[in-house]
C-alpha cells in the first residue's frame, strides 16, 4: 500500500552559501539511528510536483514521471552528508540545471549494498534480497527521508538539506492457511555461488481437502513470474463492498479494477474448491536475488545456477513435502511476461523434466527483435540511423501506438538508479542473466549505457546461450521430439513492449519445423500486455485468469503424455 502524507509538511532547511556556483545543491544527511559504522549503496533523490503519495512510489521511466538523481556512496556514516550537485546524473532532466524553478515534494532513499565474495573469488557490491522483491522503494533496511516541500531554483546558490531518518522495517512473512502453504528451501548450489546462504521460497496452493487425503499424489504447476510476496489471485471471501474504486489508468474499461481483481480471485477460489475441478498443486516461487525480483529460472554466469537449483533441487524437495507425483509428465509451466519467457526457457533447457509450457506475452524470445532492436545487425539500441538523420527507438506504447518513453529513456533511467547493471530494471536484468561475467565480477554490458552502441561479442554470447528461437532451431533435431505438444505461446499484437515482434519470428520457425511442434501460437487483436490467449474476455480480465485458463490445457497434456500405469486417479477425488 502507498502511504499518504499531509500536504502541509515542513519546509526543508535552506542553507545559503557560495560553494554552489552553477546550481542549487541538495545535501543528504544520514541521520537515522543506524547500527553499522558506514554504508554503501545508491543514494536516490526524488523531486515531484505530486504531493498525494510519497515520491519514492511515483518513480518510473515515463516522460511525465518524477525527477530522480542517483549517486553511488561509500563509507557513508551517521552525521555525514553527501551532495547531489551539478554533476550528479538525473532523469528525465540530466542535471539539476535542467530542473525548472518551483515548489517540489522531495524525498531521498539510500538503497543499501552488501559485499558478496563469490565462489569464483570475485567480490561484488550489490543490494541483497531482503524480502521486498528487490524493490528499492520498500526493501527492509533501506533508509529514507520524510517527504518535505522545498522551493528550488537551479540558479540560486545554496544547499537544501534532506535528512535520512527512517529505516524501513522487515517484511512480515506470510502464514500458512488452509489452501496456501509456504516452503523455504536452502540451495546449496546457489549458496556456493554467492558465498552465503541462499534460499528459494515457494508459495504453494494446495487442493481442497489436501490434509484429508494423505494417499493422494498430485500434478504440479509452476506459475512463473515476478516476485510474489505470497500466492496471488486467490481469495476465499467475496469482494470487499467498501473497496476503494479508482479508474484504471491502464485498462480504460475498468472503473473499479480493485473490485475486478477481488472478484476474479474469489471466482477462482470457488472453481478451485468445486467438486469437478481436478486436484493439483500450484506454486509461485520467490527467487529474488541481488540483481532483480527473480532469476529468470535459468543458469547464469552472473546470477548463478538458478535453473539447476529450481529444477533439480527445489522442485523435487517441494514435491516430496507436498506429495507431488514427481515425474516430468506431471509437471507444467506457465506465466506471463518475464514468467512467459521463463516458462518457455525452462521447458527448452529441461525438455524431459516438464510436460508443457504455456507462455503468455513472453519477454523477447528471439533477439533479432529485442523489443525493436536486432542485436546482431543493428549497431545501436537507441537509434535507427540513416546517412543524414536518425530516429529514436520506442520503449513503450499503448494500443494506439502512442509512445510514453523510448529505449534510451528507460536505459538512462536505469543508469540513474544504479551503475554496473545494479538498477534492478528490465534492461539490466536481461544483461545480468544473459551476459558473461566481466573481469570486475559484474555483467558485461550488451551496449554502452550512455550511447547505445551494441557490443557484438556480448550479443553473440546472448545468442548462443539464451536466444530461445535460435537455440530451438539450432538444436531442433534433438529437441523437437522432446518438445512436441509442449510449446504454447500467446501474445497481443499491440503488446506495450513490442513483445509480439519476437513471437512473429518464433512462429516463422515453428510453422516449418520438422518434426512439427504440435503446439499453439495465437495473437490477441489489439490486445496489450499481457494477453493470456482468451479472446472471449477483455485483456484486463484474462490476465487475471492464468490459473483457471491453463488447467484445462494441463489436463489435456496429462491425458496425452501420461505413461502406462501412471497415477491418474488418486488426485481426482471429489
UniProtKB/TrEMBL annotation:
It comes from the Bacteria. This is Esterase.
Amino acid at each position: 500500500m502507498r502511504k499518504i502524507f499531509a500536504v502541509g509538511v515542513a519546509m526543508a532547511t535552506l542553507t545559503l552559501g557560495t560553494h554552489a556556483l552553477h546550481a542549487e545543491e541538495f545535501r543528504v544527511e544520514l541521520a537515522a539511528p543506524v547500527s553499522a559504522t558506514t554504508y554503501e549503496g545508491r543514494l536516490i533523490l526524488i523531486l515531484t510536483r505530486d504531493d498525494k503519495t510519497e515520491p519514492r512510489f511515483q518513480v518510473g521511466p515515463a516522460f511525465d514521471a518524477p525527477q530522480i538523481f542517483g549517486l553511488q556512496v561509500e563509507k557513508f556514516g551517521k552525521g555525514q552528508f553527501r551532495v547531489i550537485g551539478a554533476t550528479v546524473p538525473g532523469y528525465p532532466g540530466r542535471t539539476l540545471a535542467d530542473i525548472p524553478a518551483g515548489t517540489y515534494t522531495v524525498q531521498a532513499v539510500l538503497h543499501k549494498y552488501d559485499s558478496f565474495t563469490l565462489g569464483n573469488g570475485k567480490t561484488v557490491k550489490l543490494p541483497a534480497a531482503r524480502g521486498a522483491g528487490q524493490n528499492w522503494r520498500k526493501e527492509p533496511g533501506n533508509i529514507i527521508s520524510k517527504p518535505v516541500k522545498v522551493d528550488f531554483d537551479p540558479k540560486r546558490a545554496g544547499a537544501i538539506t534532506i535528512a535520512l531518518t527512517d529505516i524501513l522495517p522487515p517484511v512480515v512473512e506470510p502464514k500458512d492457511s488452509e489452501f496456501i502453504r509456504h516452503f523455504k528451501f536452502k540451495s546449496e548450489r546457489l549458496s556456493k555461488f554467492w558465498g552465503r546462504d541462499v534460499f528459494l521460497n515457494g508459495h504453494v496452493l494446495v487442493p481442497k481437502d489436501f490434509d484429508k487425503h494423505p494417499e493422494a499424489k498430485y500434478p504440479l504447476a509452476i506459475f512463473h513470474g515476478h516476485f510474489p510476496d505470497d500466492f496471488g489471485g486467490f481469495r476465499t471471501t467475496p469482494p470487499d463492498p467498501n473497496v476503494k474504486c479508482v479508474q484504471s489508468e491502464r485498462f480504460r474499461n475498468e472503473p473499479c479494477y480493485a473490485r475486478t481483481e477481488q472478484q476474479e480471485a474469489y471466482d477462482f477460489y470457488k472453481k478451485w474448491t468445486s467438486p469437478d475441478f481436478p486436484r493439483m498443486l500450484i506454486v509461485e516461487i520467490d527467487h529474488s536475488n541481488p540483481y532483480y525480483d527473480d532469476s529468470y529460472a535459468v543458469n547464469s554466469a552472473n546470477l548463478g545456477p538458478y535453473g539447476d537449483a529450481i529444477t533439480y533441487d527445489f522442485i523435487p524437495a517441494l514435491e516430496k513435502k507436498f506429495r507431488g507425483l514427481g515425474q516430468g509428465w506431471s509437471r507444467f509451466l506457465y506465466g506471463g511476461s518475464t514468467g512467459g519467457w521463463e516458462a518457455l526457457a525452462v521447458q527448452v533447457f529441461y525438455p524431459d523434466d516438464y510436460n508443457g509450457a504455456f507462455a503468455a506475452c513472453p519477454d523477447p524470445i528471439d533477439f533479432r527483435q529485442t523489443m525493436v532492436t536486432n542485436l546482431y545487425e543493428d549497431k545501436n539500441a537507441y537509434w535507427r540511423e540513416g546517412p543524414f538523420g536518425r530516429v529514436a527507438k520506442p520503449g513503450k506504447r499503448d494500443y494506439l501506438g502512442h509512445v510514453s518513453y523510448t529505449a534510451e529513456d528507460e536505459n538512462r533511467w536505469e543508469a540513474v538508479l544504479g551503475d554496473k547493471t545494479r538498477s534492478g530494471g528490465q534492461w539490466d536484468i536481461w544483461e545480468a542473466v544473459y551476459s558473461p561475467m566481466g573481469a570486475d565480477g559484474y555483467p558485461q554490458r550488451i551496449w554502452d549505457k550512455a550511447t547505445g552502441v551494441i557490443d557484438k561479442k556480448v550479443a553473440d554470447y546472448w545468442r548462443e546461450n539464451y536466444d530461445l528461437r535460435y537455440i530451438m532451431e539450432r538444436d531442433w533435431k534433438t529437441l523437437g521430439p522432446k518438445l512436441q505438444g509442449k510449446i504454447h505461446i500467446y501474445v497481443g499484437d499491440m503488446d506495450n513492449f513490442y513483445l509480439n515482434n519476437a513471437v512473429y519470428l518464433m512462429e516463422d520457425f515453428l510453422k516449418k519445423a520438422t518434426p512439427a511442434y504440435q503446439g499453439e501460437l495465437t495473437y490477441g487483436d489489439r490486445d496489450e500486455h499481457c494477453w493470456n490467449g482468451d479472446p472471449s474476455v477483455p485483456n484486463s480480465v484474462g490476465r487475471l485468469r492464468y490459473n483457471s485458463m491453463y488447467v484445462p490445457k494441463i489436463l489435456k497434456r496429462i491425458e496425452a503424455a501420461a505413461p502406462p500405469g501412471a497415477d491418474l486417479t488418486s488426485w481426482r477425488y471429489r
